[in-house]
Amino acid sequence: MEKLKIKNNSKSKDTVTRTIRISGISFDKIEKLAEKNSLSFNSVVNQIIEYGLENIEE
User: Fold this and answer.
1) What pTM, to 2 d.p., does this model score?
2) Shortest CA distance to 31 belongs to which of 6, 1, 55, 14?
3) Closest by alpha carbon to 41, among 6, 3, 5?
4) Rounded to 5 degrees, what are φ and ψ at 16?
């Protein structure tokens, strides 16, 4: 499986506001990725979710 590559994408206009809980370790990793790539935390989370959904084994 190809690894996830974080991209500087434009913001999606089709969004839903939802509260989720994630582990502190995951939060820290995502925060570091966001800072490293000059992106928002939400942008990185959305890219991770999209990658997971596209590569899920059903």
Assistant:
1) 0.81
2) 6
3) 6
4) -130, 135
